[in-house]
Design a protein that fits this description.
The protein has 124 residues and is mainly alpha-helical. The protein is built from 6 helices and 3 strands. It has a 3-stranded antiparallel beta sheet with strand order 1-3-2. Helix 2 crosses helix 3.
């Protein structure tokens, strides 16, 4: 799963924000609030996202409705894990990440890791 192109990302954002399946015509109406796109362009990109496994397509009357296969959080998590898997030595990557995030995010991550491992962190 690679990063998304700008139109792919825009389509995903619309569907994530909507929280429900949408037809191409509905996607087009929302996307055209920001930029002018053709119906066939949106349809082609939506089909590309289906092939990438990011959207699911279900029949609806004489058309299809598209929905995100994963939540935004799940998608970002998959990207992060994919990036981590690309490293042959994960420890420096994890260390750099831990040093780079905001302190509040680091504490939240530490709390989640503590819950996962069953260990409580020291609050000193």
């Amino acid at each position: 799963m690679a990063n998304l192109g700008s139109l792919e990302r825009a389509i995903m954002d619309v569907l994530w924000d909507a929280g429900k399946p949408m037809r191409v015509r509905e996607l087009l109406a929302t996307l055209n609030e920001v930029r002018e796109l053709a119906y066939t362009t949106v349809q082609t990109v939506a089909e590309r996202l289906v092939k990438k496994g990011l959207l699911v397509r279900t029949p609806y009357r004489n058309a299809f409705k598209y929905a995100a296969a994963y939540s935004r959080d799940e998608h970002v998590t998959r990207l992060m894990l994919e990036a981590l898997a690309a490293s042959t030595d994960r420890l420096p990557v994890l260390a750099r990440f831990a040093q780079s995030v905001e302190e509040e995010d680091a504490l939240a991550l530490l709390d989640e890791l503590s819950r996962r491992t069953g260990r409580r962190r020291s609050t000193t």
